[in-house]
Every structure is written in C-alpha cells, then in structure tokens.
Amino acid sequence: MKLKYECNRREKQGHKSGSSSFHMHDPEAVFDLLALKKGDCFLDLGCGPGDYSLEASRFVGNTGVVYSLDRSELLINNLKRRVAEEGIMNLVAMVADATRRLPIEDGCVDICLVATALHIPGITRNAEALCNEIRRVLKPDGRLAIIECHKEDVSFGPPQHMRLSPEDSEGLITRYGFKKTGIIDLGYNYMIQFGVCRDNDK
Ligand SMILES: C[S@@+](CC[C@H](N)C(=O)[O-])C[C@H]1O[C@@H](n2cnc3c(N)ncnc32)[C@H](O)[C@@H]1O
Questions:
Q1: What is the pLDDT of residue 17?
Q2: Range of the domain at 173
Q3: 199 CA distance to ligand 1 centroid (A)?
Q4: Is 22 close to ligand 1, i.e. is its CB under 6 Å away?
C-alpha cells in the first residue's frame, strides 16, 4: 500500500491548499471501513483542504450532510469556493476550533473523522475537550474514526516526536468516554474506530 500511494503524489496534490493525508493511502480502504450511507451526517474535524469531506459528500448523497470544520479561514474559504464551483449542495464548511464548542447541534452526527490532526499539540493537549464535544454531537450509536501517521522517521509529515503510535491514540481517546471498535493499517498511516461508551461498558 505504501508503494501504491506514494507521498510525492500527496505533495503534488495537497500542498497547494494545505496538507492532507488523503493521498498517502488508499482512500477506498478508509471509506470501505467508514461504510457511510445515504442520509448520514459526517463530521470532518480539522478537515484541511477537505479531500475526505468531498469524498464523503458523494456517499451521503442529497439526503445526507457533511460538516467540514477547520480553524484555518484560508482552507475553509478555499473549500467553500470549490464546493460552490462543483455545485455540491450537501457540504457545509465552517471555521471552528476543534477544542472549543462546535457549531453543530447535539446528537446529529453518524461519523466523525479526525484525520491527522490529533497529533497537533494544541489538540493532543485538549483531547478531553475534543472528546467531550465529539460525544455531544454524535448520535448514541455514532462513531469516531482517527487517522494518524505511524510513529516512524520519514522525510514528510510531522516529525517523529510529534507522532502518535496507535497505542498513544487509543489511550488518549479511550480515556474520555470512547471504546475501540477496530483498527486498520493504511501503510504510512493507521485508522482506529471508536464507539461511545455506555454505562454498562465501564
Ligand atoms: C495535517 S492537516 C490534516 C487535514 C485533513 N484532516 C486531512 O488529513 O486531509 C491538520 C489540520 O488540522 C487543522 N487544525 C489544527 N488545529 C486545529 C484546531 N484546534 N481546530 C480545528 N482545526 C485544527 C489545521 O488547520 C490543518 O488543516
């Protein structure tokens, strides 16, 4: 998988509009596991250029909605422009800080994706606030998917000391009301899925 989705592809396609993990692995593998359905509500937190959001908008269809949130006004404006140019009607892009109250109603999200953003120090440090907000906006049976870069020394992406191993990510998220439901190795990256803990899970 690492050979198929070379990082220079990511650099060519991602850097103009913000860094993205989307082209570092096979997006199909990610979306197969996310198993989005028509009508779903998908939240892309720290969406960057919005590649996952744009792909998700195809899966959820006209009856679904994609919320794309990032703290970068520039990236959100670029995404809004792209959405308008492509006539996409089911994607709402908003500037928001993932560690503060999100501009989203309680209990309406089926799947929240946090792709290569958890390792960012301002987010890692505020993992409790992040998890509380994600739990607030998720439906009771909603899911959280975390994509992160393996903790290895490579010439692209975050430096090794900032990276989170799968165990680091799992530890951070399960501390704040989530339980792990699955993990997949994506080559350079990995994705872990979580569900919300119920009282009888504790
Ligand atoms: C490495 S990029 C990943 C972008 C996208 N998730 C992807 O993988 O294609 C990390 C993104 O997180 C955003 N970010 C960092 N801290 C944030 C915060 N506190 N709230 C919202 N977004 C944040 C950055 O602006 C950046 O776009």
A1: 54
A2: 22-197
A3: 32
A4: yes
